[in-house]
Specification:
Layout (H helix, E strand, L loop, with lengths): L6 E3 L3 E3 L4 H6 L8 E6 L2 E6 L10 E5 L5 H13 L4 E5 L3 H12 L4 E6 L4 E5 L8 H19 L4 H31 L1 H6 L4 H31 L6 H24 L2 H9 L2 H15 L3 H28 L1
Parallel strand pairs: 5-6
Antiparallel strand pairs: 1-2, 3-4, 6-8, 7-8
Helix pairs in contact: 2-3, 4-5, 4-7, 5-7, 7-11, 8-9, 8-10, 8-11, 9-11, 10-11
């Protein structure tokens, strides 16, 4: 941290000099406008948002000899860190097909160029025009629809439908994390969203848990379609699921309205679901492998809902 002396300027103003490196990094020139935000014991000075200041971030990924999971890891890392252009080199035919499938899971990335050994993708989303809260509500709406269908009788069609909707949640989840990363790195974006750092942290944590809940819902539906649960056991499973659904609706209400009381109620009653799942296993389901997996997914979903509640509580205190 540098120190700068305050210099009197005229009868009503004071000035300080700006670091040359900061001026150069922001491509500022004499006469450019700066934004000054006053806080209790600090001034926040930010540069304008002119075209000349917009930096295009490019990332090259050499895929030669790398396993596909390593390529996926590097591609997703570049996306989440807001690279505008991502070039994947040294691809063979098989890897090209898999990379194209990966790109379909990343909202806003479109293929600009493709050759026999290379793919260049460009980000077409303007982060400043995307609302984090709107994306979170879209994820929430998808999860509610998955809950409505997870326990219905048409299991064969539901399995595929829920898997497709879970993919939609994954895309939105990655986009939310991408925007949050940009907001944490650039105070101008954070101010544009009119949000505080602790609210950004809450959105990050909730988005992560919602993505996990989507995963659990598709697995719960798959377990039910395969397990052939006894007729006398299904009402017990349905009762547990409906209680989870009620808790989910409550915790999302708490998230949107910052309601401390609702969040505390959801978090402090989580033990009830765990006990009911254990009771289900003790009453004859333990010998059914799919039923055991089902119970574990119900427990995990309960934990994710409780974690959202805990995050809301910490945000409200």
């Amino acid at each position: 941290m540098e120190t700068r002396k305050l210099i009197s300027f005229g009868s009503s103003s004071y000035v300080i000099s700006l670091p040359k490196t900061w001026v150069s990094q922001n491509r500022l020139e004499k006469g450019d406008s700066l934004y000054v935000e006053e806080k209790s014991n600090e001034l926040i000075i930010t540069s304008g948002d002119s075209e000349k200041q917009k930096e295009v971030k490019e990332k090259q990924i050499d895929c030669s000899g790398k396993p596909i999971e390593k390529i996926k890891c590097e591609l997703f890392a570049a996306y989440l860190n807001n690279y505008n252009i991502i070039e994947l080199r040294q691809l063979d035919e098989e890897r090209i097909m898999k990379v194209k499938e990966m790109l379909q899971g990343l909202a806003g990335l479109e293929i600009l160029e493709q050759t026999s050994d290379k793919i260049i993708a460009k980000d077409l989303i303007n982060i400043k025009e995307v609302s984090i809260k709107a994306l979170m509500r879209r994820i929430d709406i998808i999860i509610r629809s998955m809950m409505d269908d997870a326990m219905t009788s048409d299991q064969k069609n539901n399995v595929k439908s829920l898997y497709d909707r879970d993919e939609d949640i994954n895309r939105l989840h990655y986009l939310v994390r991408r925007i949050i990363t940009a907001a944490l790195e650039d105070q101008k974006i954070s101010r544009l969203f009119e949000t505080e750092p602790k609210d950004i942290l809450l959105d990050w944590e909730v988005a992560l848990r919602l993505e996990k809940i989507g995963d659990n819902l598709k697995r719960i539906n798959k377990c039910i379609s395969k397990s052939k649960i006894e007729d006398k056991k299904f009402p017990v499973v349905l009762d547990i699921f409906n209680k989870l659904k009620s808790k989910y609706l409550g915790v999302m209400k708490a998230y949107y309205s910052k309601d401390l009381d609702i969040a505390c109620e959801v978090e402090t009653t989580k033990r009830e679901i765990y006990d009911k799942c254990d009771e289900l296993l003790q009453n004859g389901c333990a010998s059914n492998k799919q039923c055991v997996v089902l119970a574990e997914n119900l427990k995990t979903m309960n934990a994710m809902i409780a974690n959202i509640a805990k995050s809301v509580v910490l945000n409200c205190v």
